[in-house]
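Thread: Modeling a multi-component assembly for a lab meeting

Hi all, long-time lurker, first post. My supervisor asked me to bring a structural picture of a complex we are working on to next week's group meeting, and I have zero experience with this. I have the sequence lines for every component (328 residues in total). Could someone generate the structure of the whole assembly? Inputs are pasted exactly as I received them:
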Amino acid sequence: MTTTSETKKLNTDIYEIRRIKASDYEDVTKTLTVLTTVGVVTKEKFHKLLNYWDSVKLPDRPDERMFNPLVIVNKKTGKVVATGMLLIEPKIIHECGFVGHIEDIAVASSEQGKNLGYHLIRSLVETGKRSGCYKIILDCDAKNIGFYEKSDFSKAGIEMQIRF
Amino acid sequence: MTTTSETKKLNTDIYEIRRIKASDYEDVTKTLTVLTTVGVVTKEKFHKLLNYWDSVKLPDRPDERMFNPLVIVNKKTGKVVATGMLLIEPKIIHECGFVGHIEDIAVASSEQGKNLGYHLIRSLVETGKRSGCYKIILDCDAKNIGFYEKSDFSKAGIEMQIRF
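Re: Modeling a multi-component assembly
Sure thing. I ran the full set together rather than chain by chain. Output:
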């Protein structure tokens, strides 16, 4: 960890980081609109997806999950103000190693500029490290490279996409 | 589909594309060494991982799988000569949409220059399309951008990584 990271501590009097839960429905779907189109996601669909995410365990690790969706809650308001996912992929390569994929990082507009994105990334990275990932990857816009470099990430390749 | 794609048909007298199976152990672990370190992967670990990949279904789609590992077999020799994975990730965004992740594409050195990588990518893309993915993404070296553009992919972002 760099000195920069050590000096930026999350203010735990105000904020809490935890796994997503069913009652986060409204806050999470709203927070994600900062990132992209959410569209029609009913409370029922949201709950079903959370149950699914909870149900998929890692191979040989019945206590650890493939889907690790975290949120940051503002304890004063009780609202979720940031959300992000760590998906853990079990591969053949690297001795049947795990690779973590960080996905769908969103911070509510009202709470931007408070390093919450940084703390969320650190928590997702720690989760992946604990589960034994040999690396964690994510895709970002070129303009966000500097932000991820501050979280000890480095450039690895180019993201390509095909849309239907 | 572009004209380029239509003119490049897989020679099905020689090659077959199918899901990975337990008896592919030696060929697949060998083929993957073209891509990166495989390390010690015993037959038992390989079979356990395949069973795991088979067991994880998509939400509300008991007949469709999250892990879609394909191989190309040379029917004359009976050997696997290429392998690649499509991991399907169920998200909240885009109306609880699915995103496909293409991972670990490897073609045996002896079979390179025969468009097998192209055909493997097309099969993985078709699998994702059938399962209802709204997009499919992959990460590659900058030198392979042209190859993926021929398969109708376009540049989307930068891959960042952290290694432990």
